[in-house]
Amino acid sequence: GSLLKIGVIPGDGVGPEVIEASLAILEKVARQDGIEYTLEHFNLGGERYLATGDVLPQDDLDRLRRCDVILLGAVGHPGVAPGVLEKGILLKLRFDFHQYVNLRPIRLYPGAPTPIRGKGPDDIDMVVVRENNEDLYVGAGGFTYKGTPEEVAIQTSINTRAGVERCIRYAFEAARARASRGPFHGLSDDDKRKGFVRQLTLVAKTNVLTFAHDLWMRAFTETSRDYPDVKCDYQHVDACCMRMVTNPERFDVIVTTNMFGDIITDLGAVLQGGMGLASSGNLNPDKTAPSMFEPVHGSAPDIAGQGIANPLAAILSTAMMLDHVGAGKSAERIRRAVASVLARPTPKTPDLGGKNTTAEVGNAVRDALD
Ligand code: NAD
Ligand code: IPM
Ligand code: MN
User: Fold this and answer.
1) What one-character DSSP code corresponds to residue 248?
2) What family does this belong to (predicted)?
3) May I ask the CATH architecture of the domain 115-271?
4) Is 1-106+278-370 a CATH 3.40.718.10 domain?
């Protein structure tokens, strides 16, 4: 095939540890499946910032833009003020590269320890389509009278009709695409008679955010006319959190705002066995700039440097990257290898109740690729 150029940002904390494990998997699967690629490494994150003051210089940004896809570990450093690296690197890339969808599957693999009693892999199998370019994340606002008793801080949620609609349209397409696995099991016979095959839940807060989420609801309803096969569903975000725990099987595809999507996908990570298992893709569906794949978790400073971070979230994000570049079979082979490792008692990292290292789990996945 043609040469794939992968930008790699290991980043901070456990980022480099889980990326190292992921690159070993990529190397083997690519060799086996005949995928030709080159890696371009980027030294970005807390260490470089503290040494040089650089966050994301123009030259790095230009070189990242020339990559086909990007694989990122995590950014965030205990010695750097909150937001400097997160906004300056992660959010900057998501915005500049028009990665307007953050796709976050929530899927329980057999053997992964969900804390949800009585629920299994058939019950916990949904995907969150998180809007990734707007809302509270744009950084609109500021302070008045900062540092005084009269201080006011304003941070505005921006919701454009075009930005919301393209994300919702992506989510309807994602729901429709899941029809290839058969109909959503949460549909009633009546739903099926009406021609519904899958379900899309809008998660918002229309009862309070009567401007922003009114726009979301209208965009949702109007876009739904093009998708008569997808059942439209709505949940307020607070009730959504409750039901993700009590009735995870009622969710198929969720579409939501940037901020709510951030929050509910950490909850979703727990449903599937913890932060060590949750994968994501920041997608530019129009392919006008690279998409970026990263675990949902952060730099985990509490366990960094010990070699015990769970690499599976990053490895599953690498699989999502392969899906995105059209190597779906290789992606599926990685997921099968991860599933086979999770199905055994060992090796497991401490977050999954085991005593093994990042490298031992990574090696087991690599061996399972045979
Ligand atoms: P975190 O996700 O880093 O850690 C939360 C908890 O999950 C910690 O107890 C951690 O040990 C555990 N954990 C995370 N990843 C794990 C893994 N692979 N294996 C085992 N356990 C794991 O969230 P936080 O502590 O709130 O944030 C730490 C830093 O990371 C902050 O600077 C934050 O801004 C940043 N952050 C970055 C990203 C990103 O780069 N995408 C995402 C979230 C947070
Ligand atoms: C995530 C992270 C980021 C977010 C932070 C680090 C900016 O929490 O990817 O979920 O809020 O999107
Ligand atoms: Mn988050």
Assistant:
1) G
2) Belongs to the isocitrate and isopropylmalate dehydrogenases family. LeuB type 1 subfamily.
3) 3-Layer(aba) Sandwich (3.40)
4) yes
Q: Is position 233 annotated as part of the catalytic site? A: no
C-alpha of residue 18 to centroid of ligand 1, in Å: 12
Look at ligand 1, atom 37, and give the residue with the nearest C-alpha: 298
The answer, yes or no, to whether residue 1 has pLDDT greater than 80, is no
Is the distance from CB of 361 to CB of 348 less than 8 angstroms? yes
For this structure, is 266 an active site residue? yes
**Where in the chain are all domains bearing CATH 3.40.718.10?**
1-106+278-370, 115-271
Ligand nearest to the CA of 15: 1
pLDDT of 260 strictly over 60:
yes
pLDDT in tens, 219-258: 999 999 999 999 999 999 999 999 999 999 999 999 999 9
Question: Considering only CA atoms, which of 41, 129, 90 is closest in space to residue 293?
Answer: 90
Closest ligand (CA of 131): 2
Q: Is 205 a catalytic residue?
A: yes
Ligand closest in space to the Cα of 298:
1
The two tokens of residue 24 are 């070993």
How many DSSP H helices and E strands does the chain contain? 13, 12
DSSP strand pairing (152-158 vs 135-144): antiparallel
Centroid of ligand 2 to alpha carbon of 262 (angstroms): 6
What are residue 91's phi and psi, to 5 degrees? -70, -35
309 lines ligand 1 (CB under 6 A): yes
pLDDT tens-digit series, residues 358-370: 999 999 999 999 8
Give this complex's ipTM.
0.99
Q: Which residue is listed with tokens 């690629």?
A: 37
- Which among 262, 323, 348, 351 is annotated as catalytic? 262
Query: What is the Å distance from ligand 3's center to 332 Cα?
Result: 25
- Quote the CA–CA distance of 283 and 99 in Å, as a whole number: 5
Using the mean position of ligand 2's atoms as its centre, give its distance from the Cα of residue 233 in Å: 26
Task: Outline where DSSP puts E strands in 166-224.
Answer: 198-204
